[in-house]
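Pyridine nucleotide-disulfide oxidoreductase domain-containing protein 2
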Amino acid sequence: MRDVETVDAVVIGSGPNGLVAANKLADAGWSVLVLEAADEPGGAVRTAEITAPGFRNDLFSAFYPLGAASPVMRELELERYGLRWRHAPEVLAHVLPDDRAVLLSRDLNTTAKSLETFAPRDGDVWRAEFAKWQRVRDDLLNAITHPFPPVRAAGGLARRLGPAELLRFLRMATLPTRRLGEEWFDGEGAKVLLAGNAMHTDLGPDQAASAMFGWLLTMLGQEIGFPVPEGGAGCLTDALVTRLAERGGRVECGRRVTKVLTGGHTAVGVQDVHGELVRATRAVLADVPAPVLYLDLVGEEHLPHRLLADLEHFEWDAATIKVDWALSGPVPWTAQEATLAGTIHLGGDVDALAGVSNDLACGRVPRNPFLLIGQMTTTDPTRSPAGTEAMWAYTHVPRGQQWTADRLKRRADRIEQVIEKHAPGFRDLIQARAINGPAELQDRNPSLVDGSVNQGTSAIHQELIFRPVPGTGRPDTPIDRLYLAGASAHPGGAVHGAAGANAARAALARGKWTGGAYATMNKTLNRILYG
């Protein structure tokens, strides 16, 4: 065993939240060590050739509207460290069963005209809603990406909207997507555009607060698109690692943390899978799911019973199956809108999407799945040889089921059948494919427990002060100097870096000369909340 290494802070996990947290601490002059279980950094933001030579496939996430818009990511100025954003000619197409399609474009008039093909007045409604977005975007994004409660950002929203409009905006945020679409729009196109974007989470059209997710993603798509890092998702990780290294921080891979070391209810370091110890004099930040941190790394004996009882009710999001293809040419979509879009939705109208959501809730694998598809070479020509297409699709399935290789193959075949129906000749283009079910996704990234990509449901009962369990909505834990820095913490999933930045802010606050008062406040809150 090596001598015990001592640093100011240890970060467990090198996903985007972990790397953002490490960068924020390094900016403050702290010595930071990031320990990663996998053989390369990035968590769910990685790229590799898994189908055919020359085809760069994103292993997990791919499009980053919140990454490009996030105030947290913008502050890091990652473009100085090699990050370049690329865009498809159009943002997103939702293809209906009869091959009509609604198009989301960065050009406002193009989106509005697409909506007007379904209902003449819907284009003007969309323009008015986008004007509202432009008024509130900065305050709203700050509210989303900063620690809870977002007092300053909420005040800004109140000033910009006024009390009457703010009250109605808050009501909108609680609505199911179906209800929002029915209240605002006449045509099917706008309604399914909102509902399809809400299903980027695990929320169906009839679930409370799904409207907020659908509205947020469509407004981001309208303004900045669904951009991707040039060269692959892993290039975003590369920029974060390069920036950290320039400030003296380190990432060490192949070092899975097995235990958070505590003394007197304070985190003092970690132990890795090799038995090596690292002492952390100021903080331990964990970019892992909350149940993993508390139950596996800390241990029940160090935690309040009420917190442990709350963790029994922690709800994961649905499992995921992802298929990547190397295609010999562009996809021959019948709907011309889809040929230009980086992101494609297949899955029917709002009722069909609700059926998929209901199937998952009932533990059934949907016969007609909702497919979220990425045309990566259309978006970034560096992803595959000229004239070809690197493409992927993912779909959700119920948790807890066994997916043998044969069963995964049949599901991939079903996915291809759905695409073939809307793009005759698609199967003839397939040079190679790679299939990853829930177990394979977790094997590549242990934080994707049983293929859950969001580290917990996005349903309102597990957001804000209820994420990951009823509490303060902040990254602090009942263990002093231990912070939850992953997507299980507020504000949840997506590559925006906010959970990591919030954890870093908390650690820095604890590290100030006023840190004793901060620790006392946190101890008092935990005693009230968990007994």
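thats it. The first strand starts at residue 5 and ends at 12. The chain has a mean pLDDT of 96. bye
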